[in-house]
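Posting for a labmate who doesn't have an account.
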Amino acid sequence: MTDRAPVVTPASAPAIAPQSRRRSLRVQVALAFFAIYIIWGSTYLAIRYAVETIPPLYTAGFRHLVAGTILLLWCFWKKLRPTRAQLRASVIIGALFFLGGHGALHWAEQRISSGLASLLIATEPIFVFLLACAAERRWRVNARLLTGIALGLAGVALLLGRNSLMTGPGMITAAVVTLLGAFSWALGIVYSRKSHLSGHPLLLSALSLISGSLLLLIAGTAAGENRGFHFAEVSHRSWMALAYLILFGSVIAFTAYNWLLEHYSPTLVATHTYVNPIVAVLLGWLYANEAVTLNVMLAGTMVIGAVALVDRGMTRLERD
């Protein structure tokens, strides 16, 4: 028995409540996909603005330190506590994901456009497949995978070839460093899968963010980024970009990504890999006057198509 009668009649209650829940769930799903599609795609332009007046490794280090601290406090509030194995693994994952992956990306965006960087980073699933095969010491391929790898390599070659975006000093080096960053991130994915480390994903993410941030700050200091750097010289645009990366890029979008993985298949969630470069190229063109040549459009189409083929090919292998 209840202390007071319900507001709605018994006949109407079962119909209204599920409908309200479904509407609420649809809104949550739409906002979550908006976060991983649009917000993550926009972070490439935000990185470019942040590294204009903040050293690149410090930018990534500050970003992940604040975001990781917020997530860790959230974990403590949920009474989640790390184990020694999780702490050890977080150092390795932090080094691969954030020092190697994001450190390379932030450094490279001093020299190449945000749109070009996003297209190069989009090759990450191809590296994941190649590294996973190497780790398993067996090669399982199908027509989609082979076509995707060939198409992706051709797209990257077109981006690095006779391209008007590669005329500046150090741009080829920056593009190669970006690819190395994508390779490092892919290596982190393969390691995290092979480590079979159990635990709440929010806690593991917070630990890796903090570990990666400390490594980035140490590497930045060792590289001399502290020399001549003064907070007073940081532009308003760089501060706003850094705040955007922390709040929207790391905390909100990352939380949405984890939530989607709990409710939907990884294949569906991974569709952000196709959308992010499109968003990044468009925003770079609209707001930063980044050139979008015919070569870029063609190469971008090839890379995104390659990612889609590799993703579908890997999904088919897992089902077989």
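Reply:
Got it, the structure tokens are right above this. The CA atoms of residues 24 and 242 lie 31 Å apart.
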